[in-house]
Amino acid sequence: MFVPAQPESCPTGAHRAGSGASANPLPAAAPPSAIEAGTVTCSHAAALAFAEAGAASLHALHMLAGATLATIAAAAASARIEQLPRDARIFAQGSLARRACAVVTGSVRIVQTGCDGGQIICCFAARGESFGIAAMFNDARHSGDAIAVQPCTIASWSKAQLLDLIEASPRIAINLIGSVGHCLVESHNRVRELATQRCEQRIAHTLLRLAGQAGRDAAGHRAITIPLRRRDVAETAGTTLHTASRALAAWEKCGLLATCEQQLLIHDMPALVRIAHGDAA
Amino acid sequence: MFVPAQPESCPTGAHRAGSGASANPLPAAAPPSAIEAGTVTCSHAAALAFAEAGAASLHALHMLAGATLATIAAAAASARIEQLPRDARIFAQGSLARRACAVVTGSVRIVQTGCDGGQIICCFAARGESFGIAAMFNDARHSGDAIAVQPCTIASWSKAQLLDLIEASPRIAINLIGSVGHCLVESHNRVRELATQRCEQRIAHTLLRLAGQAGRDAAGHRAITIPLRRRDVAETAGTTLHTASRALAAWEKCGLLATCEQQLLIHDMPALVRIAHGDAA
DNA sequence: CGCGACCTTGACATCTGTCAACACGAGTGG
DNA sequence: CCACTCGTGTTGACAGATGTCAAGGTCGCG
After folding, report:
1. Which pLDDT tens digit goes with each residue over A101-112?
2. Can you list the positions of beta strands (E) in chain B?
3. In a 3-state reduction of DSSP, which class is residue A41?
4. Is B250 near chain A, with CB under 8 Å?
C-alpha cells in the first residue's frame, strides 16, 4: 500500500534464526503459532461452553464498541474462538499477518526479538483489546511473537472476514484506528521516556501504565492483573533484568509495592507517581 | 471509546507550561496552530494554483490509495488545503485533535515534549503521509507538536468530514489503519533499538529509516530529502545533540556521508548498514 | 557589531549494562 | 528419596558508554 520497502532494521524471525547470538532461542515446548495453524486446543466441553457464551463475550471487545447487535452477531458468527494454554504462541514474529486477534479472556504479550538477540515487550493486550492488527492491514509480517501470558480465550478473524465486517459497519474500522492509535501514542511516550529518563523512572512509568491498563483496586492497594516476571518488567521498561530487579527489590523493601504469585500490588501510588516524575531523585 | 483514563505520564502541553525546566519554550515566532485556527497563510495566487491542482495532488496521498475517482473528488471537495511557511505549527501538543492532516508537499515533524523538558521527534511525515490521526479517533489530545520542516502544503479534514468519507469508502479507513499501523511498527522498532543498542547503531538506524522514507537516489549516493539539523537526528535517535554530532562528524570525516545545506547525503550505504547491525563495533 | 541559532570538541562523572556468584522452587529421572 | 537441571530472582563488583558541563567557532541577520 504505502510501505516502500522492508525497513532496514531486522527484527524478523528469519533473521533471528540466522543470528548467532541466540539470547533466546524459541522455547521448544511452545506449539508453533496455534492460531495460524488452526490448532484448536480447547476441550470439547469448553468449546461448547464458549459457543454459547460467544456473542455475549464479544460484547466486551473494544473493537466492537458501539456496534449494533446485528454487527456483533455477525462478528461472532465469523469469529474463530479458541482457548489457549499459558505460554502458547498465538502468532510468530516474521510470519505473515493473516488473522486479526482480540483477547476475550486472559492476556497476551507481544515480544519483539532483534537480529542481535535483544528483546523487548512491545505491549500487553488485556481483556477486550485487539492485537496483530497493524501488520495485517499492511500485508506485512508480524513484528513480534504473541504469547499467552495466562490461559486465554482468543477471538480471531481472517482479513477477508474483517473487511466484510468493516464494509457492513465502518464503526469497527474507526474503533481499530483508535486502538492502534492508542498503542502508537503509548509507544511514543515510551520512546521519549527511554530517550530522556532514568531507569527507575521508566520502570515506575511502566508499572503505572500497566496499572492503568489492567489494574484492579483492592483493599488500600492497586493490583496489576497481568502476571509479571521481573524479566517482563525489564523488557517493558527497556532495561535489564538486573536493574529492574534491583529497583523492584528496593521498592518492596520500603513497602511501596509487593509481589504475590507474579501479581504486582502497588501500595503507594503517589510515591510511584513521584518517582516516575523524577521528583524523588 | 476504550481509553480508561489519561495515562500517568505527562507529555501534555498543559504540564509543559507548568514545568520549570523549560528546556524549550515555544518559539514565539511560530503562529499558534495554523490549521486549528483556520489561519490560511497562503497567498491568493498560490491558493488559486492549488485549487486547480487540488484533486490532482490528492491522488498521491496514501490514505486515498486505491480509492475511486469519486471518492478522491469527494475528499478534495471537503478538504481544506493550506500552504504553511517553514516552522509553522500545524497543531499543538495537548490541544484537542479536531482535524486529520496529510502532507501534500513538504514535510512535517511531530515533536513530543515531556513535562521534564525532554524532547523527542515522534516521526516525520513526508509527502503523501497522514498525521494527527491517532489522537483524533480517540477523541484525545495531540501527543506532540506538528511543525512544518519546510514550506508545506497540508490537506486536512474535520472528524465529521472524515467519517463521512469513510462511510462512503471504507477503503480510506483501511488505509488509515495501515498508516497508523506502520508508524506503530516503526515505533516498536525504535523502542527496541533504544533499549538494546548503542547510540551509534541507533543513529545509523535513524538515517537508514529516513533514507527509506524520504530518500532520493543521486550520483553514487542517497540523499535524505528532509532537511535535518543535528538536533533532529539526535531527537529521532533518542540521544543528545552532542553524541549525535560526534558520530556524524566522525562519519563525515571518513567519507561515509556528507551534509549539504541541511541535506544529508549518504555515500556508503553498506557501511551504514554494517554500523546499524553492530558489525563494525 | 552584537546576538542568536547551530555545530564542534574536550573533560569528567555516573548511570547502568555486563560479568559472576548464589539462592530458591519446580519439575524430572534414576 | 535424592540428584540434577532449569527458570527465576537477588546481589556485588566493575568498566565503559554516554549524558552533563564548559568553552569556543561559524554563519546569518538586524
Report:
1. 999 999 999 999
2. 80-84, 89-91, 99-105, 108-113, 119-125, 130-131, 145-148, 152-158, 215-218, 221-224, 257-260, 263-266
3. coil
4. no
- B197 interface with A at CB cutoff 8 Å: yes
Residue A251 (CA) to nucleotide D13 (C1'), in angstroms, measures: 22
Task: Please tell me whether residue A74 adopts helix, strand or coil conformation.
Answer: helix
Across A215-237, b (16+ Cβ under 10 Å) vs e yields beeeeeebbbbbbbebebbbbbb
Decide: residue A274, CB within 10 A, 0-12 exposed, 13-18 middle, 19+ buried: middle
The three cell numbers of residue B66 are 486505491
Break chain B into its structural domains and give their ranges.
34-191, 198-276
Return averaged pLDDT per consecutive 10 residues of chain B, 281 residues in all.
44 42 34 53 48 69 94 94 94 95 96 93 96 94 95 95 94 95 96 96 96 89 93 97 95 91 91 88 47
Set of cell numbers at residue B32: 499558534
At B139, give phi and psi (nearest 5°): 50, 40
List Cβ neighbours of A37 (8 Å cut-off, separation of 6 or more). Answer: A31
What is the model's pTM?
A: 0.86
* Domain B198-276 architecture: Orthogonal Bundle (1.10)
| Cβ distance of B120 and A167 shorter than 8 Å | no
Which of A116, A184, A213 shows the shortest C-beta gap to B184?
A184
Q: Which residues of B51-81 are buried (b: 16+ CB within 10 A; e: fewer)?
A: eeebbebbeebbbbbebeeebbebbbebbeb
Of the partner residues B5, B178, B212, the one whose CB lies closest to the CB of residue A2: B178
Do the Cβ atoms of B134 and A185 come within 8 Å? yes
Q: Protein contacts on strand D: list nucleotides below 7 Å from a Cβ.
A: 7-13, 17-22
Half-sphere exposure of B70 (CA within 13 A, CB side): 4
For A34-191, CATH gives: 2.60.120.10
- Which residues 91-110 of A have a C-beta within 8 angstroms of B? none
Which residue in the block uniquely carries the three cell numbers 524523588? A280
Q: Which nucleotide is nearest to A201 (CA to C1')?
A: C15
Chain A residues within 8 A of B209 when measuring between CB atoms? 7-9
How far apart CA B180 and CA A211 sit, in angstroms, is 25
Count Cβ atoms within 10 A of the Cβ of residue B252 and give its class: 0-12 exposed, 13-18 middle, 19 or more buried: middle
Q: What torsion do the CA atoms of B3, B6, B12, B17 make, to the nearest 10 degrees?
A: 160
Q: Do domains B34-191 and B198-276 have the same CATH topology?
A: no
Tens of pLDDT, residues A127-179 = 999 999 999 999 899 999 999 999 999 999 999 999 999 999 999 999 999 99
How far apart are the CA of A142 and the nearest CA of chain B, in angstroms? 9
* Spacing of A27 CA from C30 C1' in Å: 26
Q: Copy the grid coordinates of residue B226.
A: 528532509
Residues whose CB is below 7 A of strand D: A 27, 229-231, 241-242, 245-246, 248-249, 252, 259, 262; B 198-200, 239-240, 242-243
> What nucleotides of chain C have any atom within 7 angstroms of a protein Cβ?
6-11, 15-20
Nucleotide nearest to A28 (CA to C1'): D6
